[in-house]
Amino acid sequence: MARAEFLVGACCIFLALSDAVHGMGVNWGSITSHPITPSIVVGMLKDNGIDKVKLFDADSWTVSALAGSRIEVILGIPNDQLERMADSYKNARNWVKENVTKHLYDGGVDIRYVAVGNEPFLKSYNGSHLKTTLPALQNVQKALDEAGHGDKIKATVPNNADVYESASDKPSDAVFRGDIKGTMIEMVRFLHDNKAPFMVNIYPFLSLYLNPNFPVDFAFCDDAAKPINDKGTQYTNVFDANYDTLVWALKKAGVPDLKIIVGEVGWPTDGDKNANVKLAKRFYDGFFKKMAANKGTPLRPGHLDVYLFSLLDEDMKSIEPGLFERHWGIFQYDGQPKFAMDFTGKGQDKMPVAAKGVQYLPAQWCLLNKNIKNSSVAGPEVDYACSLSDCSSLGYGSTCNNLDSYGNISYAFNMYFQMQDQDVESCNFNGMAEIVTQNISKGSCLFP
């Protein structure tokens, strides 16, 4: 594994793998302190045979970099723009003109979908987007149609899997969540009428993380779990069971054949006892094999459209859901691959191609000065450093969990120093820190 150093640049995307298993994709987020330049990312996508990409916004620099690449693109409209899109059709029309039409020229950007919002009905949002999401979706699709793009480009809404539920935890008892049921039924029928897909995010890791009694093997697709029976249908993994729970909910809503795209699915590599490279590889190995076989699920056999989450680690994501939120990438934040993967699902493990042309800051680190005898006085400084940087790798079960006191303090100091672009004054901490040129990374615990 290459040393993680901070880099200089900018970018924001969500992508898909197609040279390998057809129809499989990967999310690429942009909530990072040192994002990669878009042109470098586009090169990395092409080097890895990736021909689909989903953005969480429509940043012009990023979208323009995809022109002529033949990479299929999904643009995103963030949740904070839903009210504008819902309140005024003119706003939706202008958005389409400025973010879609301008890129549709000969040799331009191959835009396929517009993702309206991102998990807007999430329970934790307490209904804050309930009244705006569907009108925004309707206005955006109308604007696409009016601009002459509607036959090729469809609008949809990425949903968290918590929009549906089952009282028995069996797929056949599925219904859309009670507080949003009316809106969901109206939305799925609108999607059906406009030949647009339903997009859902499914996370087997979270099933394991949120329930200490969850059967571990059921989180993976390697047929190691004890099957669960649902009226004669056998399930050996939570991905299939969750997917088919949605299928049942759609059937009961009157749209049994609505196309489904899995917008996010993956496994983090740090930030929790079950978030590590070993389990991530186990998940991806089984999942790629499943995808390559085109088995689908018991209720939807055959080809599935799936986007892995995610391309890169994001060191500025909220850790409220868990420290693992910053470690979903199959690549480190600088475009270096974390482990060998078999995108073909046919036992052909190899390291993904790293990003080329990434610029790094100087090879220097900010550590606790070894002349400090009483390291306990560094507590407030560590709290300050971690509050403004990323110390998620220090958490229980994480890659840097076993550092001694000197290592813990140094890790916190260094993360702050790097996220401040190595500003000399950011390595002070009341005189307790020093800048060095020797890396003290140990094993899987990397000091950026």
Summarize the structure.
It contains eleven helices and 18 strands. It is an alpha/beta fold and 448 residues long.
Architecture blueprint of SSEs:
Blueprint: E1 7-8, E2 15-17, E3 24-27, H1 38-47, E4 52-54, H2 60-65, E5 72-77, H3 82-87, H4 89-99, E6 110-116, H5 133-146, E7 154-156, E8 158-160, E9 164-166, E10 174-176, H6 181-193, E11 198-201, H7 204-210, E12 228-230, E13 233-235, H8 238-252, E14 260-265, H9 277-292, E15 305-309, E16 359-360, E17 365-368, H10 379-387, H11 405-419, E18 433-436
Parallel strand pairs: 3-15, 4-5, 5-6, 6-7, 8-11, 11-14, 14-15
Antiparallel strand pairs: 1-16, 2-3, 2-4, 9-10, 12-13, 17-18
Which key terms come to mind for this protein?
two-stranded antiparallel ribbon; 448 residues; alpha/beta; ten-stranded mixed beta sheet
Care to describe what's here?
The longest helix is centred in the middle third of the chain and has 16 residues, at 277-292. The chain has 448 residues and is an alpha/beta fold. The strands form five sheets. Strands 7-6-5-4-2-3-15-14-11-8 form a ten-stranded mixed beta sheet, with helices on one face. A hairpin with a 7-residue loop joins strand 9 (164-166) and strand 10 (174-176). It contains eleven helices and 18 strands. The model is unreliable at 1-19 (pLDDT under 50).
